[in-house]
Amino acid sequence: MGWLYFSESNLKAEVCVGVGHISVWRNYAIASIAVIATGVAITPSSACAVSDFEIIQADWRITNKELHFVTMVGEIKSNCVTPMGAEIQVVFRDSAGKVVVTKEFYPKRSRDLQPGEICAFTNEFLADDLEKNFATASVKVIGTYRWGK
Fold it and tell me: What pLDDT shows up at residue 128?
């Protein structure tokens, strides 16, 4: 076995095991560090990152020309090892490639995606917000959040 030392003041965590010593430095608070019976240190690498999500497909269409609604549809896959929510950003651009507006949303609202889960999403935007002059829309994952459900 071993012992764990964590100091929030200098954000340093040290794990000492039977044979060896590991120091981990982060510029953010370390969520958890565990030492298992074999003496192997497990760091927050099991935590989910933006890069652990994959946008499989995304497309947009104008769904109501009179009311100026735009619908974004697609699928996202979680490659995380733990349940985690993803925040998606849609960037609308004009024909010159300039950003018109950005919109953010969570594809499962306030629910986590399970490891390996593929989730279809639909989100509707009022095109008046887009000044009615966008030509393209791109989608990316910009954040993660643990909802716990």
Answer: 64
CA dist., res. 142 & res. 55, Å (int) = 11
* Over residues 101-130, mean pLDDT: 87
Domain range list for the chain: 2-46, 50-145
pTM confidence score:
0.64
Q: Which residues pair with 124 in a beta bridge?
A: 71
At 73-84, the pLDDT tens digits run 999 999 999 999
Q: Which of 43, 2, 9 is nearest to 24 (CA)?
A: 43
**Distance separating alpha carbons of residues 42 and 27, to the nearest angstrom:** 18
Calpha distance 129→132 (Å, rounded): 8
Tens of pLDDT, residue by residue over 48-95, are: 899 999 999 999 888 877 777 888 999 999 999 999 999 999 998 988
The domain 50-145 is placed in CATH, from the list 1.10.10.60, 2.60.40.10, 2.50.20.10, 3.10.20.90, at: 2.60.40.10
